[in-house]
Amino acid sequence: MSLSTEEVAKVAVLARLRLAPEELETFTGQLNAIVDYVAQLQALDTTGVEPLAHGVEVRNVFRDDARGPALPREAALANAPKRNAESFLVPAVLD
């Protein structure tokens, strides 16, 4: 399958790209090369091949959640811009 210059111009309009005539010729050649490569890939026999989400094994690298000692209230409120004796003070969000 080969794309015409008119088809590439239509794709450019849909992508909201303004292409000069020489750019249109360049992109037509490049898009045709991409389409030819995809056609090569489609010719491969992939029966029996499991679909993949990733090419390599992905695993969670985060540590397990573990309960630790609580931060003392005074330490938690130490850098608060506004606070009272027990909590942070923030502006009201609802009327």
- List low-confidence stretches: none
Strand content: under 5%
**SSE pattern, N- to C-terminal:** HHH
- The structural class is mainly alpha
Helices, by number, come to 3
Largest sheet: none
Helix content: 25-40%
Number of strands: 0
Radius of gyration: 29 Å
Shape: elongated
Instruction: Give the end-to-end Cα distance, rounded to a whole number of Å.
Output: 62 Å
User: How would you state the average pLDDT, rounded?
Assistant: 91
Describe the structure.
With 95 residues, the protein is mainly α. It has three helices and no strands. The longest helix has 22 residues, at 21-42. The radius of gyration is 29 Å and the shape is elongated. The model has no long low-confidence stretch (mean pLDDT 91).
Quick recap:
The chain is mainly α. Helix content is 38%, strand content 0%.
Please give the structural blueprint.
Elements (H helix, E strand, L loop, with lengths): L4 H10 L6 H22 L30 H4 L19
Highlighted features:
mainly alpha, elongated, 95 residues, single chain
